[in-house]
Amino acid sequence: MSLQAPSDIVMIRPHAFRSNPETSGDNAFQVAGDGPEIAARALAEFDTAVETLRNAGVTVHVFDDFGDRDTPDSVFPNNWFSTHAGGHVAIYPMFAENRRRERRWDVIDMLKRAYRVQDVIDYSGLELDGLALEGTGAMVLDHIGRVAYVARSRRADPVLLERFCTHFSFEPMAFDAADEAGRAIYHTNVLMGIGTDFALIGLSLITDPVRRREVADRLAETGRAVIDLTPAQIAAFAGNAIELEGERRLLALSARALEALRPDQIAVIERSARLLPLSVPTIETAGGSVRCMIAGIHLSRRAVSKSERIAA
């Protein structure tokens, strides 16, 4: 098993999916869209993605969002909580007001029941001070090398980043990143994804050439193959992928992302992971893709007691 690749995940089924107007200002990947037909397509894409992941041996905990609290981005739960080896859970402050309503304690209660949770550190109250750190969207975490890579944005407050890294023993590595039109990258996980033996990253989007080299070197120091993605590949969500452990090690990414990868890049990935494409074109109109849909569980499972086995 790899520290980087969780075998268990949380996903939120969106019953009232739509593009979020409160996040469109800084999310250049987002396309406006609303209505029952769009919601129905997103729901079907979600259910097929869950089935594909489960068939590949991944344990998927699904929670339904019935759309009664105006949570258009609920399908992206990795932004409001994360889990960490040793039994630690973090809950994050969100930038957009309607995204704050995505936090739900039934998810945390499930984690406490099914996994060994030592503590829950809740940063969400810092929203009152105008601070945001949107989980593993804002941070791409190297769980092996203990580095938190962060593209600077209003969704990744530097003071809160330092606090998180102190609490969870990560080294912060922040940088500025922008697309070809000069628009800042809103979440780091659309720019890069880290696996056990490789890293996907759009290096050319890191604006400072010195910092660009430092980031590439830091990734290579861990023995990973650095797969440099073009701006067009980043726009196709090729960086928004997550390594998982199923029947074997997997790289979950969207079908669109896989189509954007070159054969030589695919060959590097397939040396250590099987590519698992998921077709989510409607969900991608909200400005996120497969990695955003998946909250990995980096916790140890609890042993099932005799009484629990009888009840089951």
Automatic annotation (TrEMBL):
Pfam families listed in its UniProt record: DDAH_eukar
SUPFAM superfamilies, from UniProt?
Pentein
**Could you tell me what this protein is called?**
Amidinotransferase
Q: Which organism is it from?
A: Jhaorihella thermophila
